[in-house]
Design a protein that fits this description.
This protein has six helices and eight strands. It has 226 residues and is of the alpha+beta class. It has one domain: Cyclic phosphodiesterase (Cyclic Phosphodiesterase, Chain: A), CATH 3.90.1140.10. Strands 1, 2, 3, 4, 5, 6, 7 and 8 form an eight-stranded antiparallel beta sheet that branches. Strand 3 and strand 4 form a beta hairpin.
Length: 226
Amino acid sequence: MVPAPIVVTLAVDEATQAGWDGLRRQWFPPERLVVGAHLTLFHALPGGRLDALLLDVAEVAATTEPFAVAITAVRSLGRGVALRVGSAILDRLHADLADRWRPWLTPQDAARFCSHVTIQNKVSPKVARSTLAEVAGDFTPYEALATGLATWRYVGGPWEPVLVTPFPSPGPSPVLRATPIVPEPGLSGDQGGPRSPASAGPPRPNPSGIAGVGGVSDEQHDGHLS
């Protein structure tokens, strides 16, 4: 049996994750809601390379302190809506990992990185336009804190948690260790201006909580692979 593909996402502070999850529960088609809100760095890495992937994740995380990411706008996905997220540090981190994993990247993961968090997908363009207008109307740009890297297995819909590798805090704080993700129960054009639903503002990476694979987009990951 071919090992399940590996997904790598950005872990953020709990308040931000809760806000993202809330928006996703509010706007995502409920029958497709099998994974929580997430900012995907890589959608489909080879499961047979998991040990090597985790070593690289640990190396990169060890040299990265927690950093701010800016949630700057609400953007259209055509048949969905996402929050646009920006950070030069995040771009460099992604580029570092992509260079290490270049031989294993799918065309999707080898393409230009455009960081975002999908809050709605797989709806009609009309519904998406309505959602975009409503979410953008209440949106105020804000910042979140990137706290680590989360690794998952894509198991045909939901994601199976593998590991959260935290970024070490500066100063003489205790050494942080990578710890397994514990899923929460019960979850198996731009318009700028903006724990998980119901507010455009900003707690923990939880894709496996509610709910990808070769050449599948972040948008496709939802219910399949997002």
